[in-house]
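Morning F.,

Quick status update on the modeling queue. The single chain you submitted on Monday has been processed. Sequence for confirmation:
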Amino acid sequence: MSATPETPRSPSRPTVTEREARQVAEAAREQDWRKPSFAKELFLGRFRLDLVHPHPLPAREDAERGEEFLAKLRDFCETRIDGALIDREARIPDEVVTGLKELGAFGMKIDTKYGGLGLTQVYYNKALALVGSASPAIGALLSAHQSIGVPQPLKMFGSQEQKDTFLPRCARTDISAFLLTEPDVGSDPARLATTAVPDDEGSYVLDGVKLWTTNGVVADLLVVMARVPKSEGHRGGITAFVVEADSEGVTVENRNAFMGLRGLENGVTRFHRVRVPAAHRIGEEGQGLKIALTTLNTGRLSLPAMCVGAGKWCLKIAREWSAAREQWGKPVALHEAVGSKIAFIAATTFALEAVLDLSSQMADENRNDIRIEAALAKLYGSEMAWLMADELVQIRGGRGFETADSLRERGERAVPAEQILRDLRINRIFEGSTEIMHLLIAREAVDAHLSVAGDLIDPGKPLGDKARAGANAGVFYAKWLPRLVAGPGQLPGTYGEFKHGTDLSPHLRYVERASRRLARSTFYAMSRWQGRMETKQGFLGRIVDIGAELFAMSAACVRAELLRTRGENGREAYQLADAFCRQSRVRVEELFDRLWTNTDDIDRKVVKGVLSGTYTWLEQGVVDPSGDGPWIADAAPGPSTHENRHRPIR
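Structure tokens below.
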């Protein structure tokens, strides 16, 4: 197809202010906290250990069903998946995808009544960790299909007719994708340009371009976020639709290539006058962002699942290599400079698995609100897994930088250390970058404050609203602040049930004290900066990072006690939890120090200088190998001028 003079392209990108963009994001949030949240309480200075201890466990039948599938999946991974081939050829073989479909891997989270396996979140994540260790690209394929693709939003918001129509297809035959991002829209959905215009025949007509559509190249079904114009009979707003990928007017214009995850079927998808039945709309008009964010509350857990798998592999390779490699008369593991890296990998892998399993089991039980826990798991997992992979490359030395194929060709074990570093890097960007996760979690963490004092610090609110907010805030803080002065973390015998050989109780007492200190710091910052608090992204990021460490410490201790009571390597688990907590406490203290002693102000001045061209002289003396072209590709609506790269797998 080609563009014609009669159909000129004209950009329709909405123009929004920063305040309007924030209002759109705020409207998409879940406004209420109907269930308790361990992490939310942690940020408020209340260490509610009772919400996570004793550690919740899956039902016996769920565990049996999950273990049975994991055994089949392990055999498939060992006999049918060649991760090196996938990385080398940048494609998952069709027969591997077909085999996964036959195994039921595309229906792990789909209810058995729709033909799925009905696995719990715990076992779904274990499966992703397993298959992701064989090939991270396959882990991403399965995760994008089930965690954010068609199955999850339909499970939570779809009509019964939609579930009956689409879920059986997703369970066995069809691949799905989630399309939100656009060439000029990332984490700012207020600027979403793809439109869905109602017509007179009870349908919507989609026009627009979507970027980085994971699974989009091979997908059969798409979840598409588009803006419905407000009109008579239509409330409008960003809305979610299920779209058949082979619909007329849908064109996959490019299959994108990346540093890592080279088998990823990720592309650019254009919609030109694509007709979508109203029956394929998920939820009501204007609910699209809320559906997306709610879906991600548990969907984000798939990413730390694969980070846990990566940590386990890093530990295995570090152990085997460091025992075999000798320098200066002894294995390199026994040299402290290397040994500290191995200890970090071991302790952090234990903690990441503790965070993942605890969050996943709470998601399965549905008795806690885990939106912050899942976000922390994603944030912490992606950052720590990247650090572990980087340390593995350092431990391996030159061999860590060398490709597996090169190692094999010269007769050594083909260890893909450099590949895992490439593959893990995207996790700090996927499904909410680290920077966006900091802001998202910070917003939820201070929700209680904004609920009572938000109008007080909002410069746009009239004096009457500020007066009422002041009265409400006075009542809230009169009760809350005194509780931050003292707590059980100051009593030597508290949490004594966590002392069995190795004593973990001091770490839990530290978490309790640090939680109150964190809450005091947040309150002081709000008092100091008031309405400017939202601009202090460096401060907010450190607040969130402290909370993530405290959550991980709590999860590690609770998991160690669970393993002890079940007779599953309890002594060793206590040792790992102790090591992790000691490492974590060092990081927490540094973060607390950096709340108030940092370079944020001078950094802002330097940034202004960079943008104004003050330092262009510093850029002299190099050549720029970048190619020509715009920074952001044209995404104006209109017919496609590209060959359709859509490649369904059957």
